[in-house]
Amino acid sequence: MIDNYKKLSIRKYIELQEMELEGREEIDVQVNILSILNDMTEDEICELPLDEYKKLVIASSFLKTPPVPNDKIADTITINKTKYNVIKNIKKLTAGQYIDYQNYIKNKDLKMLPYILSVFIIPDGKKYGDNLENTIEDIYNLSIIDALSLSAFFLRKCQSLTKATVIYLAWKLKRMAKKEKNPMVKEKMMKAVAEMNTLKTSIKDGDFLIGLYK
Length: 214
Hints:
2 domains
């Protein structure tokens, strides 16, 4: 019985989010939810004695509030008996990992969450890209609380890295502009600096998590 978010996997969370609600009776939606949470068919749910059905409804009440990520994350996690190392130092990412991360977050579909996490949690003794399909399949079984906690942590780290990079590039370009003799080129360089400064202020935490808590 799944009665809290710690027991709810990413896969089941996605199933719940993708449920068709429009035009359905409340009881039909409730039965659908209970079937997902308890690995039972809707017919099996409907055949339960009333007292057992009531217990399942009460157990599902945790869904009335959104999942809340934890502030701290572990250095390793185990999924399906496989140990994964968590990359907490974003500077240790390869260029390929960072590029994949940027590509994944462009699509704000919840289904991308396992792919995003696969950039930062690597099977012990392996390198990024080894058995990637198996890694993503494992991550689908990760608790949604752990998943959101990890993604929030990585977001803060990556946003910080992105902001620091923009600040550095703007500073470097401004120094170059001061030495530039051609006024037209200098004007273009300073315009680029201004655009970078605008970009810097627009980088905010939480952008790619929009929709994950709905």
